[in-house]
Amino acid sequence: LFFFPTRRSSDLSSGINAEYGGLSDVMDTIKHHASELNIAVVGSHVVGSIPLQALIKAADSYIEKEGVFLIKEQQKIRFIIDRLGLNSVSEFKPESKVIEYVLGVNRHGPLQSSTVQQFVESVGARTSTPGGGSVSALVTALGLALGQMTGWMTYGSKKHEGAEKTVTSVLPVLHRTIDQITPLIDADAMAFANYLVAQKMPVTNEEETLRKQEALEEALLTIVHVPMKIMELGCGCWSQIEELTANYNSSLKSDLQVAIKCLEAGIWGAYKNIMINLDDVVNDKTKQEIAAKARKLLESSETMSGRLLASLEK
């Protein structure tokens, strides 16, 4: 405990292992004991730098306690800076205090980080990647993003006050799924690149031939896994889109319709990528299981899309 006469305040120094205890737990404990001594806690500050996840974890804790509706990273950072009083001693600048921001860690792949123009040009270039798999991932994410936009434009509207409960349950799911799908734009391209590497493996003897066959099979299954993940994540959001169609801002009808068609198209594209690559998979049992699962997801998607579009036309 340190006393600063010029500030007429004291500092309590605490080392925190974010893996075992959160910032919010420490702050709440300090406030509890301070209140017993009739002492006010005016804020806190970070010495050195701090992991991003520690701030997000603390923000999520207060968001749950206070019933606040926040889902974006930057919103959560601003929120926890306020709740922990991180500006009380000196300005807390995330770009110089959060480890990931200081290091300039790029959590997105090159395709995901590219501009729209760059991505379109790369798709249209004379290269095998990015191809249908990456485009399917993007189209699926765009469909969900339009659904998210519809939710946000419905939330807080006096004309749609009854939709607030629906929107607050739907938006976090769509936001989280978009974050899971967008990395698959790069993952699809990388999976195909690995397959090309396996194709170039030498086959000068029986051992090398066997090793190449195993590498090709593994690479093919990885290529199939990425679009399967797109299908699973996309189909997992149909129920949320359905909830929106039952209670949404009607001025966004066309946006919601486009969202549904994009989601369906992205899932369909992922299905086609699975089926064309399954042709080269050697293990028949694995091939049949994957094909059956993909067909089931596709049928479910087409059914939901048709039903929701029909309901919007009424």
Please render the helix and strand layout as text.
Blueprint: E1 2-4, E2 9-11, H1 23-36, H2 52-66, H3 73-84, H4 94-97, H5 99-103, H6 110-113, H7 116-124, H8 132-154, H9 164-181, H10 183-199, H11 206-235, H12 238-246, H13 253-278, H14 284-312
Antiparallel strand pairs: 1-2
Helix pairs in contact: 2-3, 8-9, 8-10, 8-11, 8-13, 9-12, 10-11, 11-13, 11-14, 13-14
Describe this structure in words.
This protein is an all-alpha fold and 314 residues long. The chain contains 14 helices and 2 strands, in the order E-E-H-H-H-H-H-H-H-H-H-H-H-H-H-H. The chain has a two-stranded antiparallel sheet. Helix 8 packs antiparallel against helix 13. The termini are far apart.
Q: Helix count, per DSSP?
A: 14
Tell me the Rg in angstroms: 25 Å
- Low-confidence parts lasting 5 or more residues at pLDDT below 50? 1-5
Distance between the termini: 68 Å
Q: What share of residues is helical?
A: 55-70%
Structural class: mainly alpha
Query: How would you characterize the largest beta sheet?
Result: 2 strands, antiparallel
Element string (H = helix, E = strand): EEHHHHHHHHHHHHHH
Order the strands across the largest sheet as they lie in space: 1-2
Strand residue content: under 5%
Rough outline = globular
Compute the number of strand runs.
Answer: 2
- Mean pLDDT figure: 89
